[in-house]
Inverse folding.
């Protein structure tokens, strides 16, 4: 296993660790130990998404395993984070938010599977990459909001964690829905072009085929004999 795939595998293995930290009573929320540890772990795991892709392209180590594991690791990380946040901070992340986020990931994965079966790929759009950044901000803000609604910065200035988390969640939901529509439109346009090409090819082939003439049956020679 090469280095990029190993980094991707580390991201997958960090998912149960993140769930354990957020769900376990071993870490205290009184001093923010649980929130800080889980935030650092989630940010580190999210950063490996760009690192493994960069190394794979630079080293020329793009493999079928990496192509399969990389998007799978991203979706597992996001899905696991939002499922746990429904229990960890249900005020900011109700169940329907997790359903929208996870449903969007399943939709894009399904479209990519169909596209692969049809012989083309759906590349990650700029909107999809932006959505990932918004998700990271939203998850970290929601985790920190569990312990701090505001973070003192200097004097009377505070960092409004709660409002950032609240705004990021709603903004993330909107971006997720818009990016899902964007992926679907791109997928549908490519599918339509494929179907149109197949129809044209079938029409051309049918015009090229010439009907084979069927020989007419030879007339039967009958000798009529008369007797008297």
């Amino acid at each position: 296993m090469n280095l990029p795939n190993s980094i991707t595998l580390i991201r997958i293995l960090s998912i149960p660790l993140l769930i354990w930290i957020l769900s376990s009573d071993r870490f205290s929320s009184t001093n923010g130990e649980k929130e800080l540890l889980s935030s650092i772990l989630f940010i580190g795991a999210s950063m490996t998404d760009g690192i493994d892709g960069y190394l794979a392209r630079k080293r020329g180590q793009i493999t079928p395993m990496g192509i399969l594991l990389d998007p799978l690791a991203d979706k597992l990380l996001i899905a696991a984070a939002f499922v746990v946040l429904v229990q960890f901070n249900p005020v900011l992340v109700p169940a329907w938010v997790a359903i929208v986020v996870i449903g969007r990931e399943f939709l894009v994965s399904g479209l990519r599977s169909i596209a692969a079966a049809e012989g083309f790929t759906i590349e990650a759009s700029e909107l999809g990459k932006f959505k990932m950044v918004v998700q990271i901000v939203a998850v970290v803000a929601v985790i920190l909001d569990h312990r701090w609604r505001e973070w003192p910065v200097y004097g009377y200035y505070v960092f409004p964690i709660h409002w950032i988390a609240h705004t990021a969640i709603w903004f993330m939901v909107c971006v997720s829905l818009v990016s899902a529509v964007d992926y679907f439109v791109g997928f549908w346009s490519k599918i339509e072009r494929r179907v149109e090409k197949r129809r044209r090819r079938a029409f051309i082939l049918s015009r090229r085929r010439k009907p084979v003439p069927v020989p007419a049956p030879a007339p039967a020679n009958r000798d009529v004999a008369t007797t008297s």
